[in-house]
Backbone:
């Protein structure tokens, strides 16, 4: 990831209003960082996880999610990450407060999501993923799922405990943040 030179650090609000051109970007400690292009396998995994999460949220009335949602993880200097998938319960962020209007657009959710999913791409470094996990948890996210397509696993991280690893043949079910949710790890990956 390459930083875009800046004369001063940006705030989250300035970042969200900036015209940065084509591409994907994050704000990391006040500096704009261009993200690598995502390829089909990454998008397929994101879609395969967003589908069950979205369906579960709708079926139960628990909450809703988004793909590529911008999440603020730090202030002074500001960091805004692009979560592959974010799921937030209506208890944390009511449905009515999520509605965006031209007069009051919702650019960054006012609360951390309950669950963030990070799909590891071949160009991601382990240290970068760990940094994101720690940022999300410190910002108030309850669980961060790190999905590794290369070994077809999902590691679920929570504050103050070791991650739980789910491999093919396992199910991710009845998570404290997602009561009643169930998804087979094998269903996340294309064969």
Residues:
């Amino acid at each position: 990831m390459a930083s875009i030179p800046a004369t001063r650090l940006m705030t989250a609000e300035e970042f969200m209003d900036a015209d940065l051109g084509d591409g994907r970007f994050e704000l990391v400690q006040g500096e704009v960082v261009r993200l690598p292009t995502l390829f089909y396998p990454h998008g397929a995994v994101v879609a395969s996880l967003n589908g069950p999460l979205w369906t579960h949220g709708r079926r139960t009335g628990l909450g809703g999610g988004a793909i590529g949602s911008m999440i603020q993880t730090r202030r002074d200097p500001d960091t805004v990450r692009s979560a592959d998938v974010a799921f937030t319960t209506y208890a944390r962020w009511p449905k009515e407060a999520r509605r965006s209007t031209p007069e009051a657009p919702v650019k960054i959710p006012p609360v951390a999501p309950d669950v963030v999913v990070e799909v590891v791409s071949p160009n991601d470094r382990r240290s970068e993923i760990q940094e994101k996990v720690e940022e999300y948890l410190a910002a108030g996210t309850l669980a961060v799922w790190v999905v590794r397509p290369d070994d077809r696993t999902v590691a679920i991280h929570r504050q103050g405990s070791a991650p739980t690893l789910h491999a093919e043949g396992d199910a991710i079910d009845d998570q404290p943040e997602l009561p009643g949710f169930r998804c087979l790890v094998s269903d996340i990956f294309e064969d």
